[in-house]
Amino acid sequence: MLGSRLFSLRSFVVAMKPAVKRTADVGGLLRSVAMVRSLSGSVPNKCASVQRDLISALQEEIDEEKKMAMEHIDGSSSVAGFDVSTKGAEVRLHKKHGSNESIHMTPLMTKYLKTKSLKMTRCPRPLLSFEIVSRENNQHDFEVREFYLAPADKSGKQDVEADVYAASGEFADQAINDLLFGRYLEERGINGEFCDHWSSSPLPTLYEHSQYIDLLDKVKNFISKKA
């Protein structure tokens, strides 16, 4: 539209072209400014409304979840002979076996508790590790997915180098399967009875619940902060 208007004016009064173009440009600029002001007034208001609604919804969910958690507090500090500690999303089970052997188990809370990492250390700190998976036939039992032996980190973190060889438990000889994955672990309290205790214990569910509440609270605090 602007181009056709300038063309028709140029047909009659060529000398007026610069003035008319400036006038047209200023008009467009004023319209743009008005539009920006309109948007700048509405967009922040909409964003603020969404932010308020989200913060309110998060707080309601946090309050409701805390109320539910209070109704199921157990206070257990041990499960099937294992002492319990927590760090972040992990529940850590640990116990002593004999005079020089420590057993540590870390169920993965974010995978519905089906996978467990079992690590055993002996002086002077070699590490025998198993990855245990609960069977999915509604029986409280497990199978060893893989295992490896490696020197443990002296700092106590038990980090293992990436180049350490790990063997699949699926291909182990039957005698080794029965003795190492069966009787050897059973002597240390890792058996079907342990799986039964862990599955029926309220502790993993309660702890995962607390982690969910903590996550909601962190999200609420993040959204509440002004950019």
Account of the protein in words:
This protein is an alpha+beta fold and 227 residues long. It folds into 2 domains: 2-70; 78-201, Roll (Mitochondrial Matrix Protein, Chain A). It is 48% helix and 23% strand. Strands 1-2-3-4-5-6-7-8 form an 8-stranded antiparallel sheet. A hairpin with a 3-residue loop joins strand 5 (115-122) and strand 6. Helix 1 (2-12) packs antiparallel against helix 2. The longest helix has 54 residues, at 17-70. The relative contact order is 0.11. It holds the Pfam family MAM33.
Provide the helix percentage: 40-55%
Coarse shape: elongated
Please give the number of β-strands.
8
How many domains, as an integer?
2
User: Based on helices, strands and strand pairing, what is the structural class?
Assistant: alpha+beta
Question: What Rg is obtained from the alpha carbons, in whole angstroms?
Answer: 33 Å
Whole-Å distance between the termini?
Answer: 41 Å
Largest sheet: 8 strands, antiparallel
Order of helices and strands: HHEEEEEEEEHHH
InterPro entries: MAM33, MAM33_sf
Protein name: Mitochondrial glycoprotein
Organism: Ditylenchus dipsaci
Pfam family, one: MAM33
Topology record:
Elements: H1 2-12, H2 17-70, E1 78-79, E2 82-87, E3 90-97, E4 101-107, E5 115-122, E6 126-134, E7 142-151, E8 167-168, H3 174-186, H4 192-200, H5 203-224
Antiparallel strand pairs: 1-2, 2-3, 3-4, 4-5, 5-6, 6-7, 7-8
Helix pairs in contact: 1-2, 2-5
